Amino acid sequence: MNVLVTGANGQLGKCIRDKVKSLKETENTYIYSDVVGSDDADTEYLDIVDEEEVKKFVKNSHINVIVNCAAYTNVDKAENDYDTAAKINALAPRNLAEAALSVGAKLIHISTDYVFNGQTFFPYNEERMTLPTSVYGKTKAMGEEFIQQSGCKYLIFRTAWLYSEYGNNFVKTMMRLFNEKDELNVVNDQIGTPTYAGNLADLIVNIVETMTPIEGKDTIPLLENGIYHFTDEGVASWYDFACQIYDYDVELNAKLNGANSKYTKINGVTTKQYASKTKRPYYSVLDKTKYKTDFKGLHEPMNWRDALRGVMFMLVDNNR
């Protein structure tokens, strides 16, 4: 099969590349695309906002599966840049869905916990009504709706609080700030689940690798269409997340330098005190029961603290 990965130079896209490279063998050809340049010579330029360009690319490349990792994820900036956020988060998924439909391909799309308003205090399952409060959340919800209305074969995975060894993210920002600041304020009343993008990448590639072409047709067997929730295991506030990053940072410094040479005080503050201009979900823990039932054995979620430790040690090893 030919598998198109869009947004391949983002952190999830790069984790998917790593997972594919680690495969002992595969009968699939992975085609990576983005509009953002990188050092990866195998990245093809594809503007997924351009409807005709997408349809032409998918048809000419004989695509069987599309994995859409592209997204406008700057939550604060989106509040003043609705048009761009809507193009990338809503119109682009619509274009990919219509292109997938035209050739009988399957679309795997990544969405977010921000499609919920976060006003309840129990994990959200897939049946809960989406009530996004931010431009980011609203445009991502629109993207989901376009895909479902298109008639294509699809899987939508909602995830949350992604980080990795790649790009800019909360973990790397905190590690940098610990070396620059004596004191930090971090929100303690927004609750969710930190999730390593590499774990989501493992799931996606494992799903693709279980698909096989139908004899005589340029398509794949129908897996059940649907929306699924996937994150690592556990619950944390951003403050909890920051404190755990700090603890591992101290541990790493002790191993490398014999002692922690820098102390940073972390203060837990409310969203109101932090004065964010964007309405974020206060509680966005996702219920993974449906995923664990339907995709049992493809990837067992791991505790977020264990995943975080592995990534931080990887980052330090890579920077030595």
Structure summarized in a few sentences:
The chain has a single domain, classed as NAD(P)-binding Rossmann-like Domain (Rossmann fold, 3-Layer(aba) Sandwich). It has eleven helices and 13 strands. The chain has helices at 11-22, 51-60, 75-78, 82-103, 135-150, 170-178, 197-210, 238-257, 271-274, 289-294, 304-319, and strands at residues 2-6, 29-34, 43-45, 65-68, 106-112, 153-159, 162-163, 183-187, 191-192, 195-196, 226-229, 236-237, 265-269.
Your description of this structure?
The chain has a single domain (2-169, 194-234, 280-302), classed as NAD(P)-binding Rossmann-like Domain (Rossmann fold). α1 (11-22) links the parallel β1 and β2. The protein has a seven-stranded parallel sheet with strand order 3-2-1-4-5-6-11, with helices on both faces. It has helices at residues 11-22, 51-60, 75-78, 82-103, 135-150, 170-178, 197-210, 238-257, 271-274, 289-294, 304-319; strands at 2-6, 29-34, 43-45, 65-68, 106-112, 153-159, 162-163, 183-187, 191-192, 195-196, 226-229, 236-237, 265-269. It starts with a strand and ends with a helix. The mean pLDDT is 91. Helix content is 42%, strand content 17%.
